[in-house]
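Minutes, project check-in
Item: structure for the 484-residue chain
Input as provided by the requester:
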Amino acid sequence: MKSFFLFSKETKGEGYVPNNEIFALASGLTGQNLTYSYTSSWLKYFCVNLLHMDPAKVGGIFSLSHVWDAINDPIVGGFVDRRNYKPFRKLRPFLLYTPPILGILVSLMFVNVNFSESGKVAYILVLYFLFDLFYSFQDVSLWGMIALSSPHSQERSRVAQWVSIGAGAGGAIVGTFQQVRSILGSLGVSDVHIFLICAFVFGLGGELLSMNSYRMQERIHSEVPKDESLLSSLTILRHNPTLLLISLARFSQGLSPKVQNAYFFENCVTLKVGNSTVNGQTAEFMYGLFGGIPGTFAMFFANKIADKIGGMKRILLSSQIAAIALRVAIYFIGYNSLPKFIIMTILSSLINLPGSMMDIAHRALTSDSIDEVEYKTGIRSEGVSFSMQNFTTKMQSGVASLIEGQLLKRLGYDSYAKENGQPQNETFMKWQWPMFVLGPVVGAVTYLIIISFVKDDKEKKATIEAALKERRQKLEEETISVTK
């Protein structure tokens, strides 16, 4: 295979990433996840409950959209890897130009269009297809910046930790939506207007914030091999078993038989606190807030914890073991009183301790695996490797959307009854609790089995890093000698 030049950009220290750049990338991920979390969490709900579309059709729309995105993600990643670009500008241009387009598309998706059922299907399908395409370019570039931020594994892990925290912050902010919705609803604002207002705030506003990520610099540059085809860029994944196993494990979590948490809370949960009544929307907000706080703090110590317990893989294993054991315990405890609800929230927070660090571990291991592929082949593959992250997320979401649509349909969910404040049927109500608490156990078991095959060898990483450093120095010296 033809060799090409690969070298590191000079910085304050070799491979050092300044804190202000990490903050820029982290805040960019916050903005992107404001958009993504709101869209992925609430667009299906909006279609079923406000546009009154058939749940099975909604599930089909999003399943088809995710399959489309799964197909275009690796192609986008291969394009990003192969396109000609100026030194140290492989990914950064996409961080600047895609956000405004995404913000506009998200805002349009939450408009209450007065179309026929077929018209609504076509409207959402076209907009979501376009959203998926542009989102692929943004997502590959944002997460790919971790691998290009430094030639050193430890420094990349530091970047992965903090940008994952930034991404988590975006999701946490969107987690307040139910409480915001409850407050605005009590003030007389219609649900239709609430969803549209939040589309502007979380969608367009989030994407404008994400443009801040453009300030992160690339510190590794590679010349595009002239003899490499797009197909070759995609097939390089065969040299990356770590990435393939992580992707398969994450996909398997989408096989869980469950629906969105909002269906459980809004239809099943009402809490008595003294003389006051807490509705399901507020209960979901409190559950997410207090259940997520310990995990949020744990993210700040992810690298130290990984070092203590023997690597990032151990975080992934412990997260699923905890999830399985504690969810079974929660199921038998129940939820339908204030003390039980509090215990459920506390145990869920324990699940989130290692669970909140999973994405950090995934991204750190993926960045290290790109080094290993470079060591084997001489080619870096940030684009196609991090496209697999989006590919897997979309395939997982596609399967989950299909399952959710069929479950809602078969359980007889009635969106008009929900709108008019009427209860759902007995069968629907019966299955909400087991789906909510035990449904994710199915995915946790399959994930645990698959991820156990991932190798996380600290000594091997050090050997590869040293070998790559030597190789880069030689190639840079050759470059300098040729230009003299």
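Outcome recorded: The chain has a mean pLDDT of 86.
No further action items on this chain.
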